[in-house]
Amino acid sequence: MSRLRYTIGRLLQAIPVLVGVVTITFLLTDAIPGDPVSIMLGPSPSAQQAEAIRAKFGLDQPLYVRYFNYLFDVIQLDLGESLYYGVPVTQKIMERLPVTMLLMTSSFTFALVTAVPLGIISAKRRNKPADHISRVVALLGVSTPSFWIGLMLIIVFAYNVSWFPATGLVMPWAPPSAIGGASNQIDVIVTSIRHLVLPTITLGTLQMAAFTRIERSSMLEVLGEEYVKLARAYGVSEGKILRKHAFRNAQLPLITIVGLQLTTALGGAVLTETVFSINGMGRLVITAIQNQDFLLVMGTTLMFGVVFVVGVIITDLSYAYVDPRVSFDGGD
Fold first, then answer.
1. CB neighbours of residue 247 within 10 Å
2. Cα–Cα distance measured from residue 314 to residue 309, given in angstroms and rounded to the nearest whole number
3. Quick one: which of 198, 210, 302, 215 has its CA closest to 251?
4. What count of Cα atoms within 13 Å lies in the side-chain half-sphere of residue 217?
5. I need a surface site. Which of 133, 210, 250, 324 has the fewest CB within 10 A?
6. pTM above threshold 0.85
């Protein structure tokens, strides 16, 4: 099976998953106590105003009619109009999604760049001081809540030494005229990096710790394989064994955990954006839930589902690139 056919097949398999996400989110949103119309119009709206709003958003129709109408709209990429913002849901998502994707990309980059060397060094120097330090760092990263890390970073690096800003996020492609103190695009990029440092460490620490533990255990397993012992017996240097024979074969478990960590990162983005007052998808979800904006809740949840499914498909495709023994037809 070619890679293209495999990718198309995986995309088709994602359709029932996304339908399930839409269905579960729709039913849970409908079960939320309270009346979104009352939140929109205040505690004592007139009967005519409430009736007009219910008719506009289809709230006066039976549940199954609203469900199939929404499903039909989703197929046409129409996620409805936000009750709270009064604009199309897709417009709000397109405004906020790049912010969250930038934050997630930077956190995963930070996690991989730090975790892979730590895991390799830890495995290569097993039960030595470097291994103990790496394991302690990973244990602290796994067991420390992200929001606490964020608050400590703000106190130390934003308020005490004033190295980095504590709130907001500047996009690197923003025009210089929109950023205070920026005279050209380089200044905008530098400002964006300074804003990204603390949220990136906050969101990426948990991923870094998990990746380090997986990389260490995977490298230890590969370094104990018979073909590695044979290479040592032939006098191949440890550096060459590590670089050419062990490293690539040890990355499959890491790729798997990177794909699975997408859900953790999406959930962590909600906390991180709240702590640093970043207007991304996480804060959009919280605003939607607080105001019972059910169309916005369903739209953002569906977008999170799409991001996760795409991430899993990319993970699957990465297997064959890293390990040629993996094929797309189910054989070895």
1. 16
2. 9
3. 215
4. 10
5. 324
6. no
